[in-house]
Amino acid sequence: MKCKPAILVLVFTIITVLTGCRRLLVFDPKGPQAQRQANDIILSISIMSVIVIVVFAILSYMLVKYRASKQGPNYYPPHIEGKNWVEAICVGIPVIIVAYLSIVSVQSNYIVEAKPIAYQDKEPIVIYAASSDWKWHFSYPEENIETVNYLYIPTDRPIEFKLYSYGPITSFWIPQLGGQKYAMSNMITTLHLAADEPGEMTGRNSSFSGKGFAENTFNVTAVSQKDFDQWVKDVKKTSDPLTEKKFEGLLKPGHLGQMTFTGTHLSFSPAPGPYKSGSSESAEGNNQGTK
Is residue 284 domain-resident? Predict the structure, then answer.
């Protein structure tokens, strides 16, 4: 009976903590890259679950079968030699599991680092994503517009993000579209993503970068190509131009709401030169940004 209060406290604590948890967005993929990563996570969890169940089953069996019995004080259990097939299983199965997961991980890494396979025949839209304390600046060089703290992207088209930072190292992450990648000063890293369906998503900086890190988030809206083109036209009709003075003010530490401009900061504050990070770095994309 003494354990009953402790059990009740434990159950209450678990329920309280879980009610504050948001749904895991990595298991709600909206693009091919995120889908691949979600599949890998589920595969890993499934394999580990099987291992845990088998180990606990064997442990329970051993505890019951070889539990202490009422033998005399002079009893000595018989000596049993080791069996080669048991040792082979104990060593071989873990080696096979690790090798299999390693192969899957390497294959997935190459897949998510490249342009999505389903969109190989489509021209990507290039977006420069620059971070500063504590906001995100998104430049669309082909459309000649720029947004702050929000993204509009077309569906069914590859997106090539060029990431860099005007401050400390940050990490660009849209969980429902793919994994995170670092944004650093004086170099560009490339992240390939795509959205398969329209919808609202949330992105954030997943790397601690100072006191404003927790609110360093941005909204993502995926729309059809037709709606995206209409949005670009509306922005050019209604938004003010981005000047160098205005941009310098935006770089000052602090939080801002969503903002939209015509023109990009790339014309007076070019992005850094290309950085080879294992994925195909597009020098052409950098040239478009510096024209």
Answer: yes
Whether residue 123 lies inside any domain: the answer is: yes
d(CA 95, CA 38): 24
Residue 290 structure tokens: 């510096």
**CATH number of the domain within which 171 lies:** 2.60.40.420
For CA atoms 227, 285, 144, 221, the dihedral sign is: positive
How large is the average pLDDT for residues 231-252? Answer: 95
Q: Is residue 182 part of a domain?
A: yes
Please give the structure tokens belonging to residue 174: 């849209």
Q: What is the number of domains present in the chain?
A: 1
111 pLDDT above the threshold of 90: yes
Q: Residue 282: what pLDDT?
A: 39
Structure tokens, 269? 């504050």
Q: Which of 276, 271, 53, 281 is nearest to 166 (CA)?
A: 271
Task: Provide the whole-model pTM.
Answer: 0.80
The string of pLDDT tens digits covering residues 123-133 is 999 999 999 99
Instruction: Tell me whether residue 99 is exposed, middle or buried, using C-beta atoms within 10 angstroms of its C-beta: 0 to 12, 13 to 18, 19 or more.
Output: exposed
